[in-house]
Each structure stands twice: as C-alpha cells, then as structure tokens.
Amino acid sequence: MRSPAPPPPETPLPSSAEVTRWLSIGELATRSGVAVSALHFYEAKGLIESTRTSGNQRRFLPVTLRYIAIIKAAQRTGIALEDIKAWLQPYQSGRKLSSSEWARMSAAWRDQLNARIELLTRLRDELDGCIGCGCLSLAHCPLRNPGDALGRQGAGARLLERPLGTAYPQD
Ligand code: FES
Per the UniProt record, which residue ranges are transmembrane (predicted)? Predict the structure, then answer.
C-alpha cells in the first residue's frame, strides 16, 4: 500500500547566512547512531543531501539529523524506502519540517501501519489454527477448509491472507 503524494513544503529554504553549522559525515554518524556506510546509502538513494567542501568532503546541515531519525523510525515500522523518499524529498536542502507537516506525513503512513499491525496480530493469534493453506494437517482443517475448498478460491493461505478487516471464521 502506497501513501498519497506529499503536499508542497510550508517552510522556505534557509539562506546561506542562516546556516551557522555544518556536520561532517563522521559527526553525523556519531550523533545519529547510523554507520557512515548507511549514510552513504541514504544519500545515494536521495533520502539525505550533502554539499561538498573545496576539498570534496561532504558537509550536512544539522536538520539532516532530524531526517535520519524519521528515516530510521519509518524503516523500523516497515515503511518502504520509496515512500520515505517521496515524503522527505520536498523538504531536503535544509528545510525544517513543521509539526503540521510531520502530522500529515505520519497520517499518510498510518493506514500502512494499521494494516501491518492487523497482519502481525493475525500471525500471532491464528497461526496455531487452520490458515487455509491447503495442507489439511490440523485437526480442525476439515471444519475450516473441508476438502481444501478454499484452494478453489485461489493460491496462498486463504484465511491468513483474507482481506483486512474481515474476521476469522468461527465454528
Ligand atoms: S492449516 Fe493448512 S489447510 Fe488448514
């Protein structure tokens, strides 16, 4: 499930006079707790941006730490990198994310999170029952899936993969 496209940013780009501090990649790694190699990966994927010194060393705005925190949190909850990128890209180059923008971003991800929570809850609660996979290996499979009737509806574990929001069939 993809989230909707992000709205345009509310805050302007900072002027060069407003930028008083730059971080090296080592400082960014130390403060964020993310390995330098992962920061290179994020940059290559367009999730964070840097500028270069005359000696070709990367320099990052401090707000990059906030983006990294968002990326880490979103990744932990299983949000796809393309989705994270789509939402963060309009705010790159040092724009600060306002609380209302963060609220819209998290609301856009809420449906995906709720879907994941429901699937994980099913795995936890239903994996010791018949999941309609066609194996007919449990004592109650004949009740839930007599003669593998569910297999005629399509492939996969038909009960485990049923549409979100539908209840597990009762006896
Ligand atoms: S658990 Fe596989 S068909 Fe019931």
Answer: none
